[in-house]
Design a protein that fits this description.
The protein is mainly alpha-helical and 310 residues long. The chain has helices at 11-26, 32-53, 59-63, 67-79, 84-103, 110-113, 130-139, 147-162, 167-171, 200-212, 234-247, 257-269, 274-281, 286-307, and strands at residues 178-179, 183-187, 193-197. Strands 1-2-3 form a 3-stranded antiparallel sheet, with no helix packed on it. The chain is globular, with a radius of gyration of 23 Å. It starts with 10 loop residues before the first helix and ends with a helix.
Length: 310
């Protein structure tokens, strides 16, 4: 059972925060995980302010926050070894709360809006070679002595690579979302639905798992089940990737998400249209998809150096 998030602020601020949380869920339609991240980030900010001021923050204190107070918070997080990307997310969560209060005429604080998120170095998505992708799918089946679990893991990794799904999207699938040998109905970020076509090999992998699964899966039941029959958790998939990574001597930072990156990169390298890839991945912005063009150029450069070393 998840621990309830407690905000170290006065009661008047708590009531405002609860309305903000409802807005994230009802209006922004963020996923549970995203809302939880926003809440944790704001709770940590509130904890910092309580220590910073020596007392719980109330509406008056929040309204009078200075630029130096926010910078002290950012310095504090940096001193804990927080990465730039994580700090940027935490700052964005805090700014979201204050921006919402401003739009709803609750409170205005110009210091918060003037804060610039830390610059994050641009990194190319890590994609594996086509042969490595297939090796990963085959290798993951070797880490369970139960046939149905081996087939389940193989089917999940096949989905991540063959359809470019996020882990959360794959594990949130219900049986009713699976249209045999046709397509999958995916609920992506922001509760945006998309239809992703499947190759026969993907449907076959899922069917083999379903035929061997000891639990009766029907209707809106979870498609992928854990050993005890409940919906499979992402951590199980991540642990399996860790085992595969070690067994195949693959890079330490290779994650299940790399299979999604590989799907997009390999489509692009083989002539896939950028707009089509955007739709398949469920990106709301084409700019997000365009990063794969850089991966494509990087692959071309590597091939050139390999073929013409001198």
């Amino acid at each position: 059972m998840k621990k309830e998030i407690i905000y170290n602020v006065s009661n008047d601020v708590v009531s405002i925060i609860k309305k903000w949380e409802n807005w994230l869920i009802d209006e922004k339609r963020f996923s549970k995980n995203t809302v939880s991240s926003y809440k944790r980030d704001l709770a940590q900010f509130c904890d910092f302010l309580a220590g910073h001021f020596g007392t719980q923050a109330n509406c008056k204190k929040l309204e009078k926050l200075k630029l130096r107070d926010i910078r002290s918070y950012m310095s504090y997080q940096t001193s804990k070894g927080l990465s730039r990307s994580s700090l940027s997310r935490k700052v964005s969560s805090v700014k979201s709360f204050f921006r919402w209060m401003s739009k709803n005429d609750i409170m205005e604080n110009s210091a918060i809006s003037s804060i610039t998120n830390p610059k994050i170095p641009k990194t190319l998505p890590r994609a594996v070679e086509v042969s490595d992708a297939f090796n990963i799918i085959e290798k993951v089946k070797e880490f369970s002595n139960k046939s149905w679990i081996a087939k389940r893991d193989g089917a999940i990794f096949t989905l991540l690579y063959g359809c470019g799904l996020r882990i959360s999207e794959a594990l949130n699938l219900n049986l009713s979302d699976y249209k045999k040998n046709k397509h999958l109905r995916i609920m992506g970020k922001g509760n945006k639905e998309r239809i992703v076509p499947m190759l026969p090999a993907i449907g076959n992998a899922i069917d083999e798992y379903l035929a061997d699964c000891p639990y009766k899966i029907k209707g809106d039941d979870a498609l992928f089940l854990g050993a005890r029959g409940d919906r499979l958790s992402a951590r199980v998939v991540q642990r399996q990737m860790e085992k595969v990574r070690f067994a195949l001597n693959l890079p330490d930072d290779l994650t299940p998400h790399a299979l999604r990156h590989s799907y997009a990169t390999h489509l692009l390298i083989n002539g896939g249209d950028l707009r089509t890839i955007q739709e398949l991945l469920g990106h709301s912005s084409l700019a997000t998809t365009q990063k794969y063009t850089k991966v494509d150029l990087e692959q071309i450069r590597k091939d050139y150096l390999r073929l013409f070393p001198h």
